[in-house]
Structures are given as C-alpha cells and as structure tokens.
Amino acid sequence: MSLKKRRFKYLTESLIEGNIKITATFAIVVVFLIFIFIMRESLPIFFNSEVQQEITFGQFFNSIAWRPVSDNPRFSLWPIILGSLKVTLIALFFAVPVAIAAALYSSEFAGRRLKEFIKPTVELLAGIPSVVLGFFALMVMASFLKNIFGWEIRLNAVNAGIALGFAVIPSIYSLAEDAINAVPRSFREAALGLGASPWQTALKVVLPAALPGVSAAVLFGMGRAVGETMVVLMAAGNAPLFSFNPLNSTRTMTATIAAELGEVVFGSGHYHALFFIGLVLFLVTFVINMTSWALFDGLMSKLYGAKK
C-alpha cells in the first residue's frame, strides 16, 4: 500500500472515530440535560413554600389514593407504583420464556435459513409503534380475553401486561441471543464429547454459561416495560386504584404523566408532582439499565478473561 493510500485510510478512520465520539458525547449531554430539567421542575416540592401549601414530599406516601384534582387532593404514589409493578411483572412473565426460548432455539438448533426467518420476524415487533399495540389490545385482545375467561373488567393489568410483553420480547430476544452466541464453541464441543445430547448441552451448559447475559437481557426488557406509555395508557383501564388484583383496572407512572401533564396548571403542585414522578422513573430506568450493562460486561469478562 502506498504512503498516500495509508494516509487516506488513516484520515478516514480518524474521521469516523471522531464522529462516533462526538455523537456519543452529544447523546450523553442530552440525557444529562433532560435529567437536570426534570430535577429542576421537581425541586419546588422540597424548597418552594407556595408549592408546599398544595403538596409536600410526605403526601406521596401517607395515603393510597391518587386524586390530584378534587376538593381534597391526594398525591399518593402507591397506586401508580403498584400499577407499574403489576403490568411490568405480567409483561415479563409472558415475554421472558418466549424470548429466551426463541433465542436459545435460533442460536443452538435452527438452520441457517430458519434462523434468518426467526430473527427478523421477532425483531420486527420492535418496529411496531406502541400505539398500534395499545390499539390492538384495546379493541381486539381485551374483548377476546374477557370472552374466554369471563372477566368482569375488560381493561385490566393482565390485558396491558400481555400487550406490553409483545413490545418487550424483541429487546430480551436480541440481547439474550447475543449472550448465548458469546459462549465459546469449546463449551459445546466438550459437552457433546462427554455424551450429552444437543438439548442437554443447550440447557445445562450453554444457558447457564450465558446466564449473566440472559439476566441482563431480562433487566433490559424490564427497563423497557417500566418506561412504556401508550400500551398501558390504552389497555390497562387508566384507573389509579390501589389493588393487588391483576384483573382490576390500573394505571402506571408513565400513563399518569401522559394523561395529566397536558392539562395541568403550570407551576401548580400537581405540575411539580408529575415531574417528580418523571424523576423517579428516570432514576429507576437508569439503575436497571446500568445493572443490565454490568451483568453483560461481567459475562464478557468471565468468558473471555477481559472486559469488552
């Protein structure tokens, strides 16, 4: 290679590397600024005396009712926290077995052509707008499940959780498949050489070795479920009830922000309470995603002896 070509290649690689660094830095700065904005709008609850006449931090936890617009306002977070937990757990209960089974099958057993069909099909779900999934759950799935099981309430946490599971499956599948594919081929060859069947090798050797990465995939899907808005807004009944019954209507933190922020009085206690919910959501998803990254990074370190 001539000196001129080597210089051109070096310049091209430097530009690409610089562009990646600038883009990554810009993304981090934007996320940080969003966090600062949300936190700034939440702080009056703690430091503004006028806002504290309407709402204090203690009101978030000293009752079980969310009724911000009434003669006697209530701003308890318990109903919407419980709603978020119910819908998220139902979504994971539905999505995790399906996603991990699909990832294990496509990685260990599917032929090349079948794998080329399974992977795009599963990941195609990620391209479906959440409002479409919510509309499907609202108009079709809710009535179908009610007629099958005889539920009294058509829109409930189970209906929203199953619909949310469809949105979560691609996220879990993609990361779980990457974790399974990262297991060295020597693990499989050693198990097969000792007489294990392909299914035994997959379930008792490959999957346990990839468990940190699979756990990271589940946590990543959990973060996706916690932050979802339109599906739960349309399919869960949108009622902030403090009930452990998954067949009752419910409302999540994201749905509360989406339903009320557009009509709230700017600068009111209700307004700042919604931003405080956003702050809690931001911190929860940040912790979940960082834990997911740490688990996946730990898998890479375990399998290859160095952090990726």
Automatic annotation (TrEMBL):
Its main location: membrane. One of its GO terms (molecular function) is phosphate transmembrane transporter activity. It is a multi-pass membrane protein. Keywords: Cell membrane, Membrane, Phosphate transport, Transmembrane, Transmembrane helix, Transport. The keyword Transmembrane applies. The keyword Repeat does not apply. It comes from the Bacteria. Belongs to the binding-protein-dependent transport system permease family. CysTW subfamily. This is Phosphate transport system permease protein. It comes from Candidatus Edwardsbacteria bacterium GWF2_54_11.
